[in-house]
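Course assignment 3, question 2. Fill in each field.
Student: A.L.
Task: Predict the tertiary structure for the chain below.
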Amino acid sequence: MTSPLLELFYQLRDEEGFLLSIEQYYRVENYLIQKLANDSDIAIQENPNLENPKIKLLCQALWVKSPKEKQKFDQAWTEMLQFQPEINIEIAQKTPIRHPEESISKIINPMDDRESPSLEITPPGDTPIAPETSFPQIATAIEKRKKITSLDNPDYYPIGIAKLQESWQQLRPLPLESPRQTWDLKATVMATAKRGFFDQIIYQKKQLYRREIIIFIDCSDSMIPFAGFGRIMKQTWANVPHFYFDNLIRDEVLRQENGWESQSLSKVLSNYSPEVTSCLILSDAGAARKRYVEERLSATETLIRRFSRRFSRVAWLNPLPYHRWYGTTAIDIADLAEDIPNFSMFELTTEDWENLITWLKEEAIPPRHLFNPNQFQQGDNWDEDEDFFSAKSRLRLFEKENEPNTRELAKRAAFPLSLSPNLLYYLRQHQDKNNQAPWYAIADILLSSLVRKIDRELYEMSPDVRKLLLEKLTPEELKSLAYQLQTYIQEQIGDYCSKSVYWQNQQWLALAYLKPSQAVNEIKQVLAEAIKNNNRVRLVRLTALLENISAALADYEPLLLLNKTIAAYSRGDLNPVGNVLQLSPEDEGTLQKRLIDEVAAIVTRDENLFTAETVLVNKTGQVIERKPVKAYFYDENLAEVGNWKKAQNYIRMMYIPQGEFWMGTEDEEIERLVKKFGWDAHKRERPQHLVKVPAFYMSQTPITQGQWRAIAATAKIDIDLKTNPSRFIGDELPVERVNWYEAREFCKRLSRETKPEYRLPSEAEWEYACRAGTTTPFYFGETITGELANYNAGYTYAGEAKGEYRQQTTPVGQFPPNAFGLYDMHGNVWEWCADTWHDNYEGAPTDGSVWIIYGADNRSPLRGGSWYDDPNYCRSASRDNNARRVYYHYFGYGFRVVCGAGRTL
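Answer field:
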């Protein structure tokens, strides 16, 4: 019959959604076992039913964590009493725990050997019962257990703490009667003399003895993936003597896992009686590394035969499953059981664990059919011409030897910068439950050729292999892994993260995918401090970290470019540092100061997400598709001037991701445009060429009159600026009577007032930002209409209908944006670029930089068209050079600002 208390537990956990583990049920059950069998509390002894308020309060204290859960708990408890009024008597008949006088905190946490007062449970009152206040012993015990097992989570292993506790109750060393009868020689002689003849042997009274258990744990490298289970076993079976060995049990055994203090094996064995002592060995026996070593078999056989004479039972617990023993030393060690009747090897599974406990209790176990060797396939033939040591070859071999779920876990294992067994168990736990790798896959990965050991329990994926595996992960999977890593650090590491370079780097890796601006800001601060203190060792580590997480920070190319310079500085190689910074390498102090300034100048963005909708039209101007726009931005706050609205008191800078595009117009299209519009100026857009553009930020709209006024009111740098040079007046209208020099003065003042370096965009940056991934004449598609942009819609470009001609500028942001979240890139006002004018793209840079050399230094390109132009001038590729840099157009010239990556040629 199932205990009604257990049924209640499952109802709360599985139906009501309580976050409970089975060991929380065992805590309650163990307490009841103690009380029902040994306690003087008459109420519990004479009335062992669930109506007892102490039992309800105990369950509530351990299982309920919120008022909402308490309400569900009370309702479930009431329903249980209606159908099952009496507690299952089977609970009372169970064997009492080892020390009946222990308090409940000791029952819950057998790892705590300290004395604690007995538990007093008070009847329910008006105030809710909270574990922290009503049951301090329980709360303390639970908290202590959390600390003990936080880095060796029992849920990671097939046998958890609850099962270990239950097993210990079966094995605990209680006094037992001796199975042997001892002849009492003196009594027999005296009885014979008294009777005059011998008629019987007189035996001594039966002796009491205690069953003892001794454990030997392998702490060699191949057992590191399973070290956590050994620690949990030691903590749970606290009074069992534990000894350690490295690969083979020799003449000396270690007293501590990571210690040097040893003890003679002979002396250890002499302390235990062979008749009443069982031995448990925890080792993979060579199965973890899939090796067969003849010397190990020979030495182990000698040891097992010695142990079989010194112990009543010898059990070998192998963390690897049966089928992994085949072809390794483990299978032949297991076969020793055929000649040594009191020896047997077991796998670490729930089923075989029961057999192991039965074996240690000196009871018979059912026959076990280990495996069929014919079901295992050998590896494929290796190509003699293949380089075994290459990353691709090692990865191919690993994938050939392991099942798909293990291969999937290896991909996840490539994400962290380094691995511990516990972290890898955690990643496995978050795999899809239907496709989860077996728990011993942790050993398959950590002991494979993909990984190298860098400390006792710290591993690192080979960089070349890591790169190959990361390429197989989707962006969504990378972000998911970043979240898991961040959660693991918060739950398992906590405040220690800030004190450990290792965990701090892992935290930055996670942040690089989740909150890149926060990661960059934190790394910037540490970089500047290390440069200031001339801490070369720290700089070497930081630059290596940035190299490792460069894929996640690809949008922060200025930092990655500067990282190469800082890396050279950390090595003491000052010549390339001087070349990049255009300073003398002899003046290290100046280089140091300039590097700090360069780090500080790197712009990061807040994690603000702009959402909108853009449209795609066909040649007739009909909308054929609507697409969501998602783009990151930050707001550059400005000083408020006059009655300027607070809502306009900033410049919104949109993040433009790095990428490449074909700049200009292909020859066939140019010929078509020249023929259609009768204008040879289209030839300025050739030759079409591929340009790779680094990430940067661009103002979401042309600079407005309100934004202009805020900066124009600041102190002069090179030239004076009019307060408002526009013809059409309005804070949200673009400024439209600005020459190139005035636009540049605005950028300089803006940079001074806000710190980041603002400038005019290069012509390549402008066209890349305008196209936003499109290849059509307009970012809206094959044409535009008067409903999509402000231009002279009395003219047409393709097959669209004529539209409204507004005859002036319109407030910015009024029409749909492009895919980068930019408004008004077609029409409204012409926009200045930083380049000098070139009649075509012959010799143009291909890296998105400003093009200065060999150009007309009194002219600069204008882009985008304006409110008075026909649609042909508003195309993404259209270029205009009608105006000199000093020229004021009386109603049509504006600009945008950019910041971020950019170089000048």
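Instructor remarks: Residues 366 and 663 are 77 Å apart (CA to CA). DSSP finds 32 helices and 21 strands in the chain.
Grade: pending
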